[in-house]
Amino acid sequence: MANNYDQLPRVEFEVNLADFKRLEQIARALEAAGLQGAYAEFQREYANALRVSKQFIRNAGADEVDAAQKIESRQVGHSKSDYIPTGTLQGSITPQFSRGGLKVSVVPLATSADADKARQKAKSGKAKHFKPGKGAELHYYGVDVEFGNSKMTAEPFMKPSGEKVATKLDGEFEQAMRRALR
């Protein structure tokens, strides 16, 4: 089995601050035209916008993890398909943040090997702890659960959670920016 990491269901949220480049040019022009402090004011406002944006993305990532875990634990498997929940998939739903902190991609990182280990640990009474697998031949079974395969029907948990969180976030970013840029 080939590694299917690129096929993983992902929910992504991103803040784009590109419009601030235009505002920076305007602030520099105002400063050059004699309006003292225009550029310094821009820098303060931009720093606030950046701080609020990063916090917003962290919160969006946390909200998405929570929503996806709830859907996965309550609605996926449980005799509806051949998927037998072990808690591994739910525990593997992970936010991955961009280097600049303005983008998050939430993805289920459990592999088939992780699920087998979780079943063995559960049978032996040992605690379950998720540690992502490594290797070129990994099969991330969140792909099969989300999209289905020849042996099981699709039971989406990432798409519905992403839609739910996106709806919630729709007006929140604008409100957060208004508070930051007073």
Shape: elongated
Distance between the termini: 55 Å
Give the class from helix and strand content and strand pairing. Answer: mainly alpha
Low-pLDDT stretches are none
Largest sheet: 3 strands, antiparallel
Fraction of helical residues? 40-55%
Strand order, largest beta sheet: 1-3-2
Query: Helix-strand pattern, N to C?
Result: EHHHEEHHHH
Q: What is Rg?
A: 22 Å
* Count of alpha and pi helical runs: 7
**Average pLDDT, to the nearest integer?**
85
Work out the strand percent: 5-15%
Number of strands: 3
Report on the structure:
Helix 1 runs antiparallel to helix 2, helix 2 (38-75) runs antiparallel to helix 6 and helix 2 (38-75) packs antiparallel against helix 7. This protein has a three-stranded antiparallel beta sheet with strand order 1-3-2. The mean pLDDT is 85. It has seven helices and three strands. With 182 residues, it is mostly helical. It has helices spanning 19-32, 38-75, 88-91, 112-124, 142-147, 158-169, 172-180; strands spanning 11-14, 93-97, 103-108.
Which terms summarize this structure?
182 residues; mainly alpha; three-stranded antiparallel beta sheet; 3 strands
Give a brief rundown of this model.
With 182 residues, the chain is mainly alpha-helical. The protein has helices spanning 19-32, 38-75, 88-91, 112-124, 142-147, 158-169, 172-180, and strands spanning 11-14, 93-97, 103-108.
What is the fold's blueprint, element by element?
Elements: E1 11-14, H1 19-32, H2 38-75, H3 88-91, E2 93-97, E3 103-108, H4 112-124, H5 142-147, H6 158-169, H7 172-180
Antiparallel strand pairs: 1-3, 2-3
Helix pairs in contact: 1-2, 2-6, 2-7
